[in-house]
């Protein structure tokens, strides 16, 4: 059995779909972190079968809407003095701004670079978002 030390103060990103943890690890640039990070791949899970886990031995700022776009089933545990003080259950955000980009050449955001790319959640089951300006459909996994 793999044994990883407890975190005194930090964050545990849990219930990541197996294989998706590397996206989060890279997005958070944890390979350059000056603190301890544990990245567990394909851990056993009663609920999911297999999952990835990231343990960060520091408190960092995380953009939860982007994390929710990567994998809405994630649970983020905030650890203080070795105790979970907060559990944040992620979900797909209702509205995202400048995370997804519209690919429609007739959209105003395509030619006017100063206009924010705003997408509204259309179908949570499919993870589809609709451009607020032109109704172009993008999916949660399409972010930059």
From TrEMBL:
Domain Aspartate carbamoyltransferase regulatory subunit N-terminal, first and last residues per copy: 2-90
UniProt entry keywords in alphabetical sequence: Metal-binding, Pyrimidine biosynthesis, Zinc
GO biological process entries: 'de novo' pyrimidine nucleobase biosynthetic process; pyrimidine nucleotide biosynthetic process
InterPro entries: Asp_carbamoyltransf_reg_N, Asp_carbamoylTrfase_reg, Asp_carbamoyltrfase_reg_C, Asp_carbatrfase_reg_C_sf, Asp_carbatrfase_reg_N_sf
UniProt GO molecular function: metal ion binding
One Pfam assignment: PyrI
Domain of life: Bacteria
Phylogenetic placement of the source organism: Bacteria, Pseudomonadati, Spirochaetota, Spirochaetia, Spirochaetales
Gene Ontology terms: cellular component: aspartate carbamoyltransferase complex
Alphabetized NCBIfam families for the sequence: PRK00893.1-3 (NF002063)
Native species: Breznakiella homolactica
Aspartate carbamoyltransferase regulatory subunit C-terminal domain mapped to chain residues: 95-136
UniProt keyword Metal-binding present: yes
Protein known as: Aspartate carbamoyltransferase regulatory subunit
């Amino acid at each position: 059995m793999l044994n990883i030390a407890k975190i005194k103060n930090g964050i545990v990103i849990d219930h990541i779909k197996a294989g998706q943890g590397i996206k989060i690890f890279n997005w958070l640039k944890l390979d350059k972190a000056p603190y301890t990070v544990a990245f567990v791949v394909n851990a056993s899970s009663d609920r999911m079968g297999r999952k990835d886990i990231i343990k960060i031995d520091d408190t960092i700022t995380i953009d939860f809407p982007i994390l929710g776009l990567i994998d809405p089933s994630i649970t983020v545990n905030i650890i203080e003095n070795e105790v979970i003080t907060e559990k944040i259950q992620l979900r797909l955000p209702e509205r995202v701004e400048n995370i997804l980009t519209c690919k429609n050449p007739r959209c105003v955001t395509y030619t006017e670079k100063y206009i924010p790319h705003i997408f509204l959640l259309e179908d949570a089951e499919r993870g589809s978002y609709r451009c607020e300006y032109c109704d172009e459909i993008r999916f949660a996994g399409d972010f930059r």
